[in-house]
Design a protein that fits this description.
alpha+beta, 11% strand, Alpha-Beta Plaits
Length: 287
Amino acid sequence: MSRIKNKTTKNIISILMLTIGTIIASLALECFLIPNTILDGGITGISIIISKLSKIPLAFLVLVLNIPFIFIGFKNLGKSFLLRTLYSMICFSFFLSFFGNFKPFTEEILLATVFGGALLGSGVGIVIHFGGCVDGTESVAIVISKRTNLSVGQIVLMFNLIIYTTAGFIFGFDRAMYSLLTYLITFKVIDFVSEGLEQAKAALIITAKGTSLSKEIYAKLGRTTTTIKGKGLISGEKEVLYCVLTRIEIYELKNLVEEMDESAFITILDVSDIIGTHIKSNNKRKI
């Protein structure tokens, strides 16, 4: 009974924080960045370009253009990711429309870049921390990363460089450079708010159900684990699982471990570099 109550409380808090995150992110875009023609990256950046050229509402474009990417994320990260992401994107779209009626907080380009980037990173970081997503680029990058030697960060960066180069030809390269600066600020703030300072993460899981948990992690997240034998001073024989993953997968990993072994102990570590071959599953997630 207490477990159900705790899970309900956790879900309520998650919904509340996802809402707050989307409010902050949409405020940053509509009141700092977009009025000064500073672009975000990813699908949101593409939506801003199309909106400025065609006058189609940004809120509509963000929601519609992300639909295929939501489906891809669902196939690889599961139903709970789908529900949280749908909720986040609907809220994000709504608040973009709401704040679109506000006057810009500043017309000073440097202030808009710094404060807009920091606020956007804070909002998106909160959403990622609680298992949601307001831009489908990263979920697609995870899929590509699992099939190539490129990291998620490298794929997202290449995608955004294409967007900013295109924006440079349309709006001027000074705006493209300000947009790139905003992206760098946003990227660092997202990492700080969501889980830490690095894109790649490693999880150490101390559990008595190492074999079954390893199989479940591989089946659900497509991530392999290394098993190390351990012994606790009080708890006795244990298995320590080591798994490298991305920040957007951490929420799913925590839920998965909690469901299978409530007594498991999880530590999330920063990874500055990955050298060597890391086996990745090409299988679609099983629901």
